[in-house]
Amino acid sequence: MLTVWCVVALLALLPPSQSVNPGVKVRLTQKGLEYGRQIGMAILQSKLKSIKLPDMSGKVKVSRIGKVKYSITGMKITSLGLPTTAVGLVPETGVSLSIANAFISIHGRWKVRYKFIKNRGSFDLAVRGLSITSRITLRSDETGRPTVSNANCVARVGSVKIKFHGGASWLYNLFRSKIGKALRKALEKQICPRVADAVSEMNPRLKTLNVLARVDKYAEIEYSMVAPPIITKEFINFDLKGEFYNIGKHQEPPFAATPFSLPAQHTSMLYIGLSSFTINSAGFVYNKAGILSLYITDDMIPPKSPLRLNTKTFGALIPEIAKRFPNLMMKLLVKTSSPPNITFERDNMTLRATGTVTAYAIQTNGTLAPLFILILDTSVSARAYITGVKLAGTVALNRIGLTVGTSYVGPFQVKSLENILLLVLKVAVIPQVNVRLQQGFPLPTLGKMNLVNPQLQVQKDYMLIGTDVHFEP
Question: Which residues of 189-228 are buried (b: 16+ CB within 10 A; e: fewer)?
Fold first, then answer.
């Protein structure tokens, strides 16, 4: 029932769409189910307290007396307890809920009439040994979003005891047994519909799932399921697409996700595995959007640096520049020529990017005169971290490789430019890249969900996030 959906709903994102390898895997553990049980019982208890028992009336035929009329009215639940509850996973099926030794206390009014005799008072009804068993299934609605339903439910009342107050005991003893049986039947009849109502109330909440999560004005990430969930006695595994797309235009990259498996860890409520495919699909999207480029000007270089972006500095290394473009400022255009590629090894993330560096002299009339184009091969180390419910990161430059692509100022030794380009990349390009990376991208979430004490590990071909969760009211 609801005991688990506050957590499970996070994971049951969409129905299987294609038989492809997932970019993201999510695991819900028994610890996660237990958290769901704790918060779900409060919701279920509220639903059961809303049970309204109908007024009852009837006649009892008493030997040598005749018919005695009675009525029971104004019944209200005054207390309800669910002391023994448990949730479990049913392999290949879903989630089971069991409640035992529950109790309900009810207060109401009674009235009897026999000929000209009228009597009335109050009563307290004690229901003990109430048990509920239920099985809940997950499916998808017509929009591809998850929906939950109550597959079956059985409710049984153990004992019913009535204590009457006021009036003559011989009168209410006439209908005590009949009232007890009627109230038992009325309660059992209403409990399972309340369970079903509670399950159905989760469906609007499921629509808060960020199945298609906006990252920025260029990209969004899809978390649809690509295979049915794998349910064992210990956990539920969900395979999610985990792929970035250009907003409004879903084009598949020229590479596919490769299989990976989550390790046998169970200390956290939730585990999220993100493959290198997911991150590389982001590189494909941003490269295709044409935003992996940056103009570098001299004001982006630290003032104390002796190396400046002008023809005097570069002319000392390439004399033709100083000869043809004396005393001019320069501008560099750094951009990727293909999508960057990230690889995951244990405790290590490395990103490689290939691009070009085009140098311009800024002439006195503001026009740009091209000087040369360099082919740039860079390797950076990456670090990922969790901020809120987002995955963010930073990079640091490892090495660069330079070759001459085109020269408009005659031949020159490209190695002489390495120090300048290293400075430009470290003080101008890398900080700009980190500004974007620190904005992060959203992880799959449901409603007001927070991650608690998330831990991130880098494994071969994927990174693993282990975390507890907390839902705000």
Answer: ebbbebbbebbeebbebbeebbbebebeebbbbbbbbbbe
